[in-house]
Amino acid sequence: MDAAIVKILRSIPRGKVATYGQVAAVAGYPRRHRHVAQLLRKYGDALPWHRVLGSGGQLKTRSDSALDQRFRLQMEGVRFRGSRVDMREHACTWPSERSKALRRRT
DNA sequence: CTTGTGACGCATC
DNA sequence: AGATGCGCCACAA
Question: If pLDDT is split at 50, 70 and 90, which confidence band does A102 have?
Answer without folding.
Answer: low
